[in-house]
Amino acid sequence: MAGANRPRTYVPSLRELSPRPTDCGSMSAGPANALGTKLMGAPQIAQSAVVVGAASFGLGSGVAEGAVIRAPHAGVEIGSGSYVLENGVVVGTPSNPVSIGRRTTFGHRCLVIGATVGDLCEIGNASVLMPGARLGDRVFLGEGTVVPAGAQLPSDVVAVGRPARVIRAVSASDLDRLLGLREGDLSVPAPSAVIVSHRQGAITMGQLYAYRGVVPTIASTARVFPTAEITGDVVVGERSIIGAGVKIVGDSHGPVRIGNGVQILENTVLHLLPNNDLVIDDGVTVGPGAMIHGCRIGARSVIEPGAILCDGSVLGPGCVVRAGSVVKQRTQFPAGTDIDGMPAVAVGHLPSFPAVPDWAWQLDDLPELGPNQRW
Length: 375
What we know:
With 375 residues, this protein is an all-beta fold. The protein folds into two domains: 3-26 and 39-197, UDP N-Acetylglucosamine Acyltransferase, domain 1 (3 Solenoid), CATH 2.160.10.10; 207-351, UDP N-Acetylglucosamine Acyltransferase, domain 1 (3 Solenoid), CATH 2.160.10.10. The protein is built from one helix and 42 strands.
């Protein structure tokens, strides 16, 4: 895609998309619009981006390098001229689908989990939108904003914070800036839809790298997506899922041990400092875009999207770390703690183990294996 056709954002020096062939269904017909041909091209899916399932893309939309779109039940719609930039994750499910309007741009590492977003929105880098969140048209989110589950933001507002709070209405200068980012044109095209299907049906084992002669050990029933990378002294247990774009680094700094039935979801990073280890017990779910350093996470805990756990922290079994929270170094929480904030603190106690979230993989939805392939 030509650089002139790609929306500008608040972050300079973005890499251009590298288009790859897409498996496209029929296009909806629509009248010509004021944007002319620049929004009429086929969706552009970058070379290292991943689409799992069947997502609907409007004409002129795009997905940048390292981004992941997960729509196993066709639960994602991205409107005409909208973009998901580098390393973003969009997850739609039957109960919480994603609907993104036209000419909306998501910055780097944004996480959109079952949310609805209107037209001409500017979503700052590393923002997190949780299931059931609804944003109107021309909403501006500051970098790192977390919109909680079920929250609603009206049209023409500026919101920041964790959780998001409206700080003011959109001003004339905001609209002038948006006009510049949209190349002098704030009109929206007619709706259109191209079905892009890249289920990775011929899925193979992700990339495994030795470090100083130590090769990762992956259980025979574990499932590792091909864009995941696992290095060094790492053990992944039975029936665990390592999602697209995940990076697990078990180099000379210490071992990484992942139990049985664990899910490490899209674009999460696991790493640790020297003389440390990283242990994730059975049944843990780690949401997309999380950063997990050398810590210990108790069985059946849930780490929501975009959370950060720092070295030396310890979570007992059955804890929940809320989206976008930051657990400081050496912080400890007992079993069943509800954890939120930056820095994270205990905000409640859970009477029982948390349920596996709707945004986690359901085993029946995983891509099928191709001939002569195995997990």
